[in-house]
Amino acid sequence: KALQLTLAVIKPDAVAHPLIMKALHQRILESNFIIVRRKDLKWRRQDSERFYAEHSGRFFYQRLVEFMSSGPMRAYILAREDAIAHWRELMGPTKVYRARYTSPDTIRAQYGLTDTRNTTHGSDSVESAHREIAFFFPEFQIEDWMKKEEPCFRT
Ligand code: DAT
Ligand code: MG
To answer: How many CB atoms within 10 Å of residue 119?
Structure first.
């Protein structure tokens, strides 16, 4: 399988807790991801609105926008084969209470507070990974990185 990049974000609820941050970082390393880039940042409200524009109009949009700009976050570009699906699987379902019920080993089940304050973000497709990596890491050249690095991971 081919090497893939995904965007993983540790949301403000988890960044506020050093032990959870540490556990999540450890989880990333244990899951055979390569950390390609890492960045600590805080969003302004308009960054939040722009990133989640597809959800404007949903009942939770204001809550989501408010929460995501409420404190610092940590973003990662992660690489491995099937990175997008693997990170989504580690995160678990969007809704924390469903996650606790159906997949108690997942990150959202273990650390999530509410359906909105659900600890982590992960891209859900190749297209969204490209868009979201560019959003968080505008200086990162995906195609250049792939050209240079992808051959090194072939076995
Ligand atoms: P995901 O983050 O699993 O990709 P999504 O893209 O559908 O989920 O929604 C983006 C974020 O919006 C999600 O991480 C938390 C919030 N959200 C989604 N559905 C929600 C709901 N029913 N109630 C409250 N917050 C919700
Ligand atoms: Mg999503």
So the answer is: 26
Distance between Cα 45 and ligand 2 center (Å): 18
* Active-site residue, selected from the candidate residues 17, 55, 86, 121: 121
CB contact at 8 A, 32 and 104: no
Q: What is the CATH number of the domain that holds 83?
A: 3.30.70.141
Report if residue 102 sits inside a domain: yes
What global pTM score does this model have?
0.96
In the chain, how many domains are there?
Answer: 1
Of 9, 59, 64, the residue with max ligand 1 atoms within 8 A of its CB, to mutate for a pocket test, comes to: 64
- Residue 149 belongs to some domain of the structure: no
Mean pLDDT of the chain: 96
CA distances in angstroms from 29 to 20, 94, 118, 154, listed in the order given? 14, 22, 20, 20
Is residue 121 annotated as a catalytic residue, yes or no? yes
Burial label for 127, CB within 10 Å (0-12, 13-18, 19+), is exposed
- 83-91 helix and 126-136 helix, angle to the nearest 10 degrees: 80
81-105 pLDDT per residue, tens: 999 999 999 999 999 999 999 999 9
